[in-house]
Amino acid sequence: EPEVTQTPSHQVTQMGQEVILRCVPISNHLYFYWYRQILGQKVEFLVSFYNNEISEKSEIFDDQFSVERPDGSNFTLKIRSTKLEDSAMYFCASSVTSGGEDTQYFGPGTRLTVL
Amino acid sequence: ILNVEQSPQSLHVQEGDSTNFTCSFPSSNFYALHWYRWETAKSPEALFVMTLNGDEKKKGRISATLNTKEGYSYLYIKGSQPEDSATYLCARNQGGKLIFGQGTELSVKP
Q1: B13-33 average pLDDT score
Q2: What is the pLDDT of residues B49-74, one digit of tens each?
Q3: Assign residue B76 a region: left if phi > 0, alpha if psi is -120 to 50, beta otherwise?
Q4: Residue-wise over A69-87: b if at least 16 C-beta within 10 A, else e?
Q5: pLDDT tens profile A59-101
Q6: Do the Cβ atoms of B47 and B62 come closer than 8 Å?
């Protein structure tokens, strides 16, 4: 069964460093998302992406964040200068359409620890 | 942002017990409600997508109902098994993005 994959599973970085989190969405999906969960808090939406453009972004997704689909398979989230408060589990998801009734399939997450 | 709330936060049951938990959400401009099952270190697994008031969906021993007028959904597990131990997340679809509740952590003891 097709699945969303994410690498690495755990990333440790120093404050101020750049990190790139990688995702491979399901191959026939067209809509891509990043969510994150800070420990003890709700899973929260960061950004959605379609047709090589950001469709929507949350207030969290400021200039320090960017997303890219560099080739036909990968979808990346870059944090330019990490802060302590960026420590969280980051989830990638994908769906065929953006319709409310369409399932978003999630990857297993990347745990980012900023020291 | 429209808040989605789940209760209880955690639940401990014995194997064989049936259980249920609640997801509540603002009922205005409703489009869809998603249920996920999430085990640590694994991908959240999609259980149900519910759109119509009065909807009832079933997957094995797990079922869910939806009331869009009063803004709640129930998830039921019949005859809980240890492998049902996980966090159950609900999320309201808001224009393509999912707004999640805080989850209900279920622990089933043999």
Answers
A1: 94
A2: 999 999 999 999 999 999 999 999 99
A3: beta
A4: beeeeebebebeebeeebb
A5: 999 999 999 998 888 999 999 999 999 999 999 999 998 887 8
A6: yes
**Nearest by CB to B100, which of A42, A101, A102?**
A42
Residue of A45, A72, A71, A67 whose CA lies nearest to A58: A45
Within 8 A of B93 by CB-CB distance, chain A residues are 100-101
Which chain A residues touch B if contact means CB-CB below 8 Å? 3-4, 9, 31, 33, 35, 41-45, 48, 55-56, 58, 91, 98-109
Answer yes or no: do A31 and B96 touch at CB < 8 A. Answer: yes
> Residues B74, A32, B27, A41: is their CA dihedral positive or negative?
positive
Chain A residues in contact with B103 (beta carbon < 8 A): 42
Contact status, residue B10 vs residue B104, Cβ threshold 8 Å: yes
Which residues of A are less than 8 Å from B98 in CB distance?
33, 35, 43, 45, 104
Mean pLDDT value of segment B22-31: 92
Q: Is the pLDDT of residue B104 over 70?
A: yes
